[in-house]
Amino acid sequence: MHYAVGAPLPPPHGQASPGAAMNWTPHPGQHTPPAPPSAPAAPPAPAQQPASGQGGHGPAHGQAPTVPHGTDITGHVQLPPGAPVPLPSPPTDTTAPDAAHAAVAVLLIGPAGAGKTSVARHWADTRRVPTAHISLDDVREWVRSGFADPQAGWNDHSEAQYRLARRTCGFAARNFLANGISCILDDAVFPDRPVIGLGGWKRHVGPGLLPIVLLPGLEIVLERNARRSGNRRLSDEEVARIHGRMAGWYGSGLPIIDNSQHDVATTVRVLDDVVARSIASPPNW
Fold this sequence. Notes:
By secondary structure, this protein is an alpha/beta fold.
């Protein structure tokens, strides 16, 4: 059934809005159903004077219509837009801020098998303020059909998907921080590729991002990588190569946590201390 362009559509079957049965005009030539028997006319309601600045056909522009009592309506929560995360404010006293309560954005850097995901997740789970864990690998694996697995060979497609995932994580981090939720991101950022690594994260998140390196010994990384499965498990040669490149973070000025002898809970306590010191004296990166 067709209706004239611009003409109001009929109400759904069995429903009618006030005035719809009287005001709806069918398309010319369309069969008009017989009108139901007329009900006794109700006495006219007293005329109401429109409010000041308002016509007689509805609420004034920009003014919400009156909702009858008991009517369920669905609104929306206005969210602040995500903006680049600024540098942390300097402390007002000599005491380091309590990292368990501060709203921060942390970038946890480390090789495959360093325990980044486990530490980041536990840190986010146990904080006293709302905190999100944003995993680069998880976001990268949102791509299902056409996923460019770097283990099959590094190429333009895998490079583009990594860049896209980092940018997506950055947008998410900015929005979380703008709405009062801290976040921790994890990524295997190489010190010999600063434009793609730290430079990209600074562009996507902001200068207030706190980068911290998680770098256990090679034997620990190899052991943890052996327990992984799927496309996140790398060959021993690849793990050793990545770990060797990560050693370039020594002397960079970024805080480094060697968690070779720490379990996850102990590493998180060390991370809290490092985050507190980074808030008090942000690293120069």
